[in-house]
Predict the 3D structure of the following.
Amino acid sequence: MTTENPLTRVRDYVKQFDSALEPVLFPEETKTALDAARVLGVEVGQIAKSVLFRSDDQYGLFVAAGDVKVQTRVVKEVLGGKKPKLATPDEVVAITGFRVGAVCPFALAHDIPIFIDASLERFAIIYTAAGLPESVLPITFPALVAITRGTVISVADQPVLTEQESS
């Protein structure tokens, strides 16, 4: 894993694909999808959350809209193994190179499968974390899929979360 600033790592990585992509830095951390949505003035669903799961020795990063829950049943189907679990904070740093709350779905420390929930497709622009808790990267759904080389699947429960549940 590199010791380079995570925001710089993300910026350098996305510039390889599109020179117009630029992370946005806030004056303070946005710890939840709801916080980020409020700061940006967008729907909470536009905030893409990246959640690392582990099933046996297999990891997978699941990227979903901020207003849905990832179904562990689907995680198990795609990762195989026993019951999937959320990765620990230490595992998140070791596998992704980013800390919890700042996990970007690209420029990862290790090559792992990335699954992008189709729930994000409903937005013209979505916002992923950009390596720091106070940063986001505005990106289109097609660009997200292309840059991550992710697999688009339906992984989210369909009832949209309330504001309290999404924080």
In short: Confidence is low (pLDDT under 50) at residues 161-167. The chain has one domain: 6-153. Strands lie at 24-25, 48-55, 58-65, 85-86, 114-117, 126-129, 135-139, 151-153. Residues 6-15 form the longest helix (10 residues).
